[in-house]
Design goal:
This protein is mostly beta strands. Helices cover about 15% and strands about 50% of the residues. Strands 1-2-5-13-7-8-11-10-9 form a 9-stranded mixed beta sheet, with helices on one face. The protein is globular and about 45 Å long.
Length: about 220
């Protein structure tokens, strides 16, 4: 918590400086981790606190990110709730040589499920070591469908045990459309039950890596 004395001192300093370099540095560090609304879109930004992440919301459904020596972080823009829809996205994500994903990412509750439609990934395929349920042909590509289990890990409901559902695109891309209903239907047909829609974002995730991205998302109608 900031003390009243510190606040008064800061306000006094602000009146004597038109553009403080310290203020510029603070702005460059981006917003604080959390969730909220921005320009008509929901955003989520989470980090485990290791390393540094500069995440910034931009116009419409856009955001930028830059991370350095992180352990794990994920963030992006989308919708809450996130029911089935056709999602368009584009931008830049050039993290093929580090451990990072670009994915449509979201949660359901009752049951608690974390899901990914992975459009591109770097040095680690997130489906490694899991059992493949099926393949799905949609939106000009082939996706492999998997499930993993997380035990006592962070979630939107606190530390929990929950399933992760994955659709991992074989032909990596950065830009296109994602027909979410096709993935949801494929998961359900594989016995992977979904619950009540929570949020859905076009996310950048970094794990034990450094990288950057600039992404915009929108609904295709």
């Amino acid at each position: 918590m900031v003390s009243f004395t510190t606040l008064v001192t800061a306000l006094a300093a602000a009146t004597t400086a038109v553009a403080s370099p310290l203020n510029a540095i603070k702005q460059a560090r981006g917003i604080q981790p959390g969730t909220g609304q921005h320009n008509g879109y929901f955003y989520s930004f989470w980090t485990d606190g290791r390393g540094s992440v500069d995440y910034n919301n931009g116009p419409r459904g856009s955001y930028t990110s830059k991370w350095n020596n992180v352990n794990n972080w994920v963030g992006g823009k989308g919708w809450k709730p996130g029911p089935p829809k056709v999602v368009g996205y584009n931008g830049t994500w050039n993290n093929y040589n580090v451990n990072s994903y670009l994915a449509l990412y979201g949660w359901t509750t009752n049951p608690l499920v974390e899901y990914y439609v992975v459009e591109a990934y770097g040095t680690y395929n997130p489906s490694s070591g899991t059992t493949k349920f099926r393949t799905l042909e949609t939106d000009g590509g082939t996706y492999d469908v998997y499930r993993t289990r997380r035990v006592n890990q962070p979630s939107i409901l606190g530390t929990s045990t929950f399933d992760q559902y994955w659709s991992v695109r074989q032909q990596k891309r950065v830009g296109g459309t994602i027909t979410t209903k096709n993935h949801f239907d494929a998961w359900t047909a594989s016995g992977l039950k979904l619950g009540n829609w929570d949020y859905m974002i076009m996310a950048t995730e970094g794990y034990q890596s450094s990288g950057s991205s600039s992404i915009e998302i929108w609904e295709v109608k």
